[in-house]
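Fresh eyes needed here. I'd like your take on this protein's tokenised backbone:
***
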Amino acid sequence: MKFTKDQRFYSINTFLKEQFGRKMVKLSIEAGFTCPNRDGKVGYGGCKFCSSGGSGELASNISDQIELLNDKWPNAGHLAYFQSHTNTYASVDVLREKYHAALSYPDIEGIVIATRPDCLDEEVLNLLSEISENHFMWIELGLQTIHDKTLDAMNIGYHISDFDRAMSELSKRNIKTVVHLILGLPEETEKDMFKSLHYVTNSGIFGIKMHLMNIVRTSPLYKEMPDYVSFDSLENYVDLVVRMLEETPPNITIHRLTGDVPRKLLVSPEWSYKKRTILNSINHELIARDTYQGAKLQLFQP
């Protein structure tokens, strides 16, 4: 990826425009899935930072999303985004029916599936491989951190070994994979966060999502740590993201640098609902420092 004065990182929007020749929009849809960390298979209550909506409060159905976004992007293409909860956590027959129902919708040109690293058995992997061979697709793995101590503390219910297995199996099938990291998890240091970044960016991923730890009112973490604030200022968060981008390989697509939290649910950081301000600040800082994605990249060992 060749960067310019105005484009300092490889955004997924840029990749999709290269792939499809026009703006592409993800339509966040609610498919009725649950999570093994809620129904008892792995645990109860969900991940401590997760809202009651499974981190999908903005999800809706396909036709509603198209109608909502059509005025803003009338000529855009659309990808169906299975976002809420764990979207490979069902029988393979149910999954096949739901995925193909979305792909058969006239305005849908591809599919994005968010899931957990521990919810990819052989049957599911084979279904995903089948879809990937015939449709545009990527999988999103909600890893959050590579540190098992934090994963346990946040009641997440999987470990880094589950991620390693998932990445191995997805890579063997040439399935594009995007990994989520949360910055500012309780007890994690900046060094811990950079270790997570280096580990996942050396694992063969297609893309990465990074966002700060938001405390939302409907999460177990709010009840346990109501006064926790992941970053005490927007400036500190922007500084960290810029330095992380500098150590991210330039071929990895950047899908998110901040989160989407409805303001009415947000507790802290109180400024983190200002998505546009945060993104503009990151771009401004990249330009001010005359730096870009991968500028300080070295060969890191996980």
User: Anything to note?
Assistant: The two ends are 24 Å apart (CA to CA). The chain has a mean pLDDT of 91. Residues 5 and 287 are 7 Å apart (CA to CA).
